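Fold sample X.
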Amino acid sequence: MPKASAQIFIDALHRLEEQQDLDTIAGLYADGAEVSNPVVPHHHRGLPGARDFWQGYRSTFREIHSEFHNVLDDGKTAMLEWTSSGRANDGREFSYRGVSVLEYGEDGIRAFRAYFDPRYLGTQLTAPQSGYPETVLSDGFSS
């Protein structure tokens, strides 16, 4: 991947969020890549794992957009500080902050790890709200 791989990732994430383009972001990953975050009970591995991870992420939200506040990229590792906000599938607004770490090489992203407080996001997505039926979100949270 070129030195600007953090920006390539950000652009692909925005395409996923805005256009539900799963292929662009999944295509950035190397064979054997690991993908994880605090709400996923196991690491997703390889290209199929990256695709499953990002499909689950996008299907959790009706609308989502991520803003990046700090991006550090040394050509091998990128750290991205972000805020994501939007609407859950039941229409509730949410916003949460975190940091993602990308490790990459010539063959693509080798590891993606996101760090955020899942309790804070879960509270926004699952807090009782009158008029909404109970549903289970794709990441395993109930509402």
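Fold sample Y, listed below.
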Amino acid sequence: MTQRIDYQKQSPELVKKFIEINMALKHSAVEESIRTLVEIRASQLNGCAFCVDMHVKEATIHGERPLRLHHLAIWRESPLFSPRERAALAWTEILTQLPPHGVPDDVYNRVREQFSEKELSDLTFMVMSINAWNRVSVAFQVVPGSYDKAYGLDKSGLE
């Protein structure tokens, strides 16, 4: 495996600005529990091992039930998610795997039934953000667990 660059060292000012956006998202109109599901599901779809690892640990620290984390990959068939969570997951998937002709009206309408205009806008920024983090982590092969102590994720008990 080829050694990849450390993007944080190469572009510290851009990383700092992007972290500022992520900190703002923590105070968005969408609840933290949905943000966590969005981050994990997008990371699964993008094959981002670092982000799946990190967000599962965060979810565990914040009290998310393990079975729900296991069911994220099968959320459509699982009875463990509310209609609002299902709408957020559908939105996450459609924006992460953007179809050639954009977002179909039926998906948009289903999400609009669950989210206000402000919430939908904030949710969209959440999906954008995790997809960007996934891309940088996949591109530079950031090692899962490599920032656990720095981020306080060692408290999850998931080593």
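Sample Y note: The chain has a mean pLDDT of 95.
Also: The first helix runs from residue 7 to 10.
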